[in-house]
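Retro notes - structure team

What went well: the batch runner handled both jobs without manual restarts.
What didn't: labels got mixed up in the shared folder, which is why I'm recording both outputs here explicitly, each with its sequence directly above its tokens.

Job 1
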Amino acid sequence: MNNAIEVLKECEAFLEGHFLLSSGRHSGAYCQMAKLQQYPDKAAQVLAPVADVLRDMNVDVVVGPAMGGIVYAYELARQLGKRAIFTERVDNVMTLRRFEIKPGERCVIAEDVVTTGISSLETKRVIEEAGGECLGIVCVVDRTTAAAPSPIPILASAAKLDLPNYLPEECPICKEGKLPLVHLGSRKMKEKAQQKQ
């Protein structure tokens, strides 16, 4: 696992500052996983232990939520000799647009980073609506905490990072007022905030 963190640092995939996470929470660190995707050999190396965990689980399909999970789902499926597909947002709702899941197929969700697991819940819903079985999540980086565990079991991760994240109203970085809040993810946060109102 330490090796995975070293690779992330080499790829400049680990950033420090003031970041808006896709969950809506704030953090002083961010894993920009697209940086790892630039190097297929390093991504394969980082994911090899995750693939090893999945080998005996009788997985049929590896499902990567767009955008962050697509490349990692593909790489894991390649290592396992299984099928890789992805879900994507249509009008900011996660859907299965280009692929099919057959009833009873055993699916695992492949994410880049899991912080609260909320994004994965959307993909789990899509899998189950199609008649598939969601076994759980695998990811490159597991950022969940005991206080905020994932609602879906995390089967394996390449790295576990214990990095605090905060509700916006409790964020100490916001209170200091020195660093601007940066959103690097692909989710439309404005629409999500409007849905909460």
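Job 2
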Amino acid sequence: MRKRYLECGKIVSTHGIRGEVKVQHWCDGPEYLTEFSTLYLDKGEIPMAVEKARTNKDMVLIKFRGVDDMDTAGTFRGKILYLDREDAPEDDGVFLQDMLGLEVFDIDTGVCYGKLTDVLHTGANDVYEITDDEKKKRLIPAIPPVVLGMDLEAGRMEIRPLEGLFDDEN
């Protein structure tokens, strides 16, 4: 089941004296977080109205309504921010958090390799980390010839490993 509130970043420090916080984003880019008028704390329990948001290098600076000084802003340091999936543009597709935990199956043999536990951004293409029950980790490229399908509702991903990718098995 898809989560309604998705982790989108972490407040790492204050910025200036007027209540802004500096956010390490967990999105495709810092600009994405500047599009939201409300973000949330405590897994979606506490709405925080965004008064203004802007990027600064690879961080996001956010001023929340009612947070008007550095001391108040400092109380949020270390907090995780969430966005409401319903506020996200409809064409955003699949979120990383929807994918984590999917069971990964070989489409030809039916073998379950484990669960998707991380997505690594390498530049050319993403790499999916799969962890099995014995905590062994495998890496697969997130490219169309390998990743053949995902069924988020069923919690399943189907892959066809490239030749030699899992040769350590034999």
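One thing worth noting from job 2: The mean pLDDT is 91.
We'll revisit the folder naming next retro.
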